[in-house]
Amino acid sequence: MAEDRGQEQARERRREQIRARREAARVAREHGLAERERERQEEAAERARQRTPVVSGASALTRSRVRLDVPRPARRRLLPQYDPEAFGRLSEKIARFLGTGRFIVWMTLVIVVWVLWNIFAPDDLRFDEYPFIFLTLMLSLQASYAAPLILLAQNRQDDRDRVTHEQDRKQNERSIADTEYLTREIAALRMGLGEVATRDWIRSEFQDLIKEMDERRLFPAERDEGDR
Questions:
Q1: For 153, which of 39, 85, 92, 113 could close a Cys bridge (C-beta 3.0–4.6 Å)?
Q2: What are phi and psi of 130, to 5 degrees?
Q3: Number of domains, the chain
Q4: Which domain holds residue 106?
Q5: For all residues of the chain together, what is the average pLDDT?
Q6: Residue 156 domain-assigned?
Q7: How far is Cα 49 from Cα 69, in angstroms, rounded to an integer?
Q8: Do 126 and 116 contact (CB within 8 A), yes or no?
Q9: Four-point Cα dihedral 39, 44, 46, 51, nearest 10
């Protein structure tokens, strides 16, 4: 009976310990939730303070605090916006077409037809009589637009050539460095091979050794006296 009572008390103590642990965990969770709630309230208050305008005492002007994590709104521009890359590609296409024989042929045909029409056509159908002022104006306008487009295409080509030359220069520097490294390695290998015993050298050494042994067999007494 005493053992049963002791076991019952031990089980009761374990139950009390489990209840205490659960209560401590619940209190900790509640405390953590309260702490997180307090942090959220502080963050909301900070955001509200940042959104509210700041009034200076001197000028009494309302200014909003600048935030670095918010992108600036796009500025309104009076001039139309365009893509410089797309405009550059278009200028290159036009410059390539102006530098072909097809453009010269078409421009010559247009000028010839223009001049013949305004000379031999009826008076009421002529739109640019001699001295062809309108044709001169169109050619001048075409030349005034063609020159900047060609210059823009040349500038883009110069930029590409500069990048290509820079890459070639770096590649040449790497090739020179690799060549120098390989030259040093080959020189080190040749120096190392000069100290290695070759087959001919070993053969000559063996032949000298065999000759010396033969001489010792043929003239042992003379060798001994000579040694003494």
A1: 92
A2: -55, 130
A3: 1
A4: 84-193
A5: 78
A6: yes
A7: 16
A8: no
A9: 170
Amino acid at 53: P
Joined tokens for residue 144? 């005034």
Give the tokens for residue 99: 């530098």
The residue type of 71 is P
Q: What is the 3-state secondary structure (H, E, C) of the chain?
A: CHHHHHHHHHHHHHHHHHHHHHHHHHHHHHHHHHHHHHHHHHHHHHHHHHHCCEECCCCCCEECCCCCCCCCCCCCCCCCCCCHHHHHHHHHHHHHHHCCHHHHHHHHHHHHHHHHHHHHCCHHHCCCCCCCHHHHHHHHHHHHHHHHHHHHHHHHHHHHHHHHHHHHHHHHHHHHHHHHHHHHHHHHHHHHHHCCCCHHHHHHHHHHHHHHHHHHHHCHHHHHHHHC
Quickly state the pLDDT bin for 173 (edges 50, 70, 90).
very high
Asked if the structure places residue 52 within a domain, the reply is: no
Q: pLDDT value at position 45?
A: 74
In a domain, 48, yes or no: no
- How many other CB atoms are there within 10 angstroms of residue 138's CB atom? 15
At 209, the amino acid letter reads L
Asked if the structure places residue 184 within a domain, the reply is: yes
Which tokens is 214 given? 């033969």
| pLDDT digit string, tens, across residues 65-102 | 667 777 777 777 777 776 777 878 888 888 888 888 89
> What pLDDT, on the 0 to 100 scale, is given for residue 175?
92
